Structures are given as C-alpha cells and as structure tokens.
Amino acid sequence: MAAxxxxxxxxxxxxPAKAEAVKAAPVxxxxxxxxxxxxxxxxxxxxxxxxxxxxxEKGIEQGRAAFDRADAAAREATExxxxxxxxxxxxxxxxxxxxxxxxxLNASAAFxxxxxxxxxxxxxxxxxxxxxxxxxxxxxALDQAKEFAELARKAATDSTAPLKAQIEKQMPKE
Length: 174
What we know:
- The chain is mostly helical.
- It has helices at residues 16-119, 123-170.
C-alpha cells in the first residue's frame, strides 16, 4: 500500500483554502506588479518612440528648411552673377561700339583734312588748314575721352549692381 501523506494542518483559525489563498496572494501581487510595470514600460516605450519620431521629424524639417534657404541663396547668387555677366557684356559692347564710332569719325575727319590739304594752293594755307584740323581734333578727342569715360563708368556701375545688391541682401543688418 502506498503511504499516506499526513494532512497538512491548517493554521489555527484558517481553513486549507484560506491558507492557499494566503500563499497565492504574494504571487498574485507580484504578477500584478509585473503587469503594471510592463504596461508602464510599454506606455513609456511608445511615448519614447513618439518623442524620438517627433525629434527626428523636427530635425528633418529644420534640415529641409536650412537646405531650402541655402538653395534659394545659391540660386539668387547665380542669378546675380548671370545678370552681372549680361550687363558686363552689354557694357563692353557699348564701349567697343563707341570706340569704333570714334575711330570712324576720326578717320573720316582725317580723310576730309587730307582732301583739303591736297586742294590747298600754297604752303601758308596748308599750315593754316593743318593747325585748324589739329585744334578741332584735340577738342574732339577731349570730348570723345569724356564720353568714353562716362560710358565706362556707367557700364561698370550697371554691371556690378546685381552683385552689390546680392551682397547687401546677404549682409546682416545692424
């Protein structure tokens, strides 16, 4: 026959079911505490994930905004350089055209002078014609130099205006 186990004695005033309940209470409390911690951790983990996502999204937005500002500044600088190149080309073309016009006028005046010299009857007339020609040409050369200098100044001012505006735009205001 199998040996019988002696029945466990219940604590005084407690029945065996109550004793089991008393023994199970700390286990139940530990399980509940573990479940509460797990719930709190999952809430904290999801909040942490949300915070990390929010920080990452904000970083991406700020990076994108910084890139857009840098891109816009680069585009504006490129446009300013392009305008400067176009205006410099126009200014150089204007100067070249003015120089060619002056050369044509001076060549035409020289040929007209030679015709007059060839038609002169005597040496005193030739000297007088030549003196008049030199005086007029000196005045013309002075006027042409003034016009050319003004045209060059205007070309330089106009061609640098886009760059100057871009630099002033980028400089911090005090």
